[in-house]
Amino acid sequence: YAFGQNFQPGDPWPKFNLTSYTRLVDYEKGASREDFVRTQLLNPPHGGGFQPIVGALHQMTLLSGSYAWDDIDANDDLVSPQAGMPASVEERQVLLAMTPQGWVRAAMAASPTMESKVEDGKAVKVVSFTLKGNSKVSGFVNDRNLLEKVDAWVPNPVFGDTLMEIGYSDYRDFSGMKLPMRIVQTQ
C-alpha cells in the first residue's frame, strides 16, 4: 500500500504488487538502501500513490547518516522529476533502529528502561528508549531473549507522529546468529 496516499479522504490507500524488494544496511555508517519494484494491482486504478503505473515503478529510498533521499525511476528508463527529492531523515533513522540488530545497537547507545509485562498472554520484557531525543522506541523481548516486535512513533509529514509496529518471528540460526524469517510491518 502507499501509506497515506489515497486519492481523496475516505478512499482506501492504493494497493500494488511488490515484485521485488531488497534492503541493505550499514549500521556503522547509519546507512540503508531499500530497493523495490511495484506494478499496478487495481484495475481500474483509483489514483494516488503514483497510480496509474504503466509497466513497473522502480524506487529506492536511501539514508546516509543525516541525509536521506529517494530515487524514483518509472520503467527503469526514465527518471521522474521527483528523483533526489529530500526525504525524512528522522523517519529512516527510526526505521533503521527498528531492525533487530539496529534496535540492540540503539538501545545500548541510549539509556533504556525495562519493564516486565504480559502481552497477548505471554510474559515479555519491554525495553524502551528515546532515539536522538525525539522518537520513543520499544522492543518486546520474549522468554527466549528473542525480539518479537518493535513499536515506535515515526514522524510523518501528513499524519504527524504515526505508530509503526514491526513484528519478528520464525527465527532461524545462521552460524550462531538468530535472524527472523518473517517480518510484518504495520502503520
Structural class: mainly beta
DSSP summary: helix tally:
2
What share of the residues does DSSP label as strand, in percent? over 45%
CA radius of gyration? 18 Å
Instruction: Tell me, briefly, the overall form.
Output: globular
Please provide the count of β strands.
Answer: 11
Helix content: 10-25%
One letter per element, helices H and strands E, the order comes to EEEEEHHEEEEEE
Mean pLDDT over the full residue set = 86
Which segments are poorly predicted (pLDDT under 50) over 5 or more consecutive residues? 76-86
> How many angstroms does the end-to-end distance come to?
11 Å
Strand order of the largest sheet: 6-7-8-9-10-11
Largest sheet: 6 strands, antiparallel
How are the SSEs placed, and which strands pair?
Layout: E1 16-26, E2 31-40, E3 56-64, E4 67-74, E5 78-79, H1 89-97, H2 100-109, E6 113-119, E7 122-131, E8 135-141, E9 147-154, E10 162-174, E11 177-186
Antiparallel strand pairs: 1-2, 2-3, 3-4, 4-5, 6-7, 7-8, 8-9, 9-10, 10-11
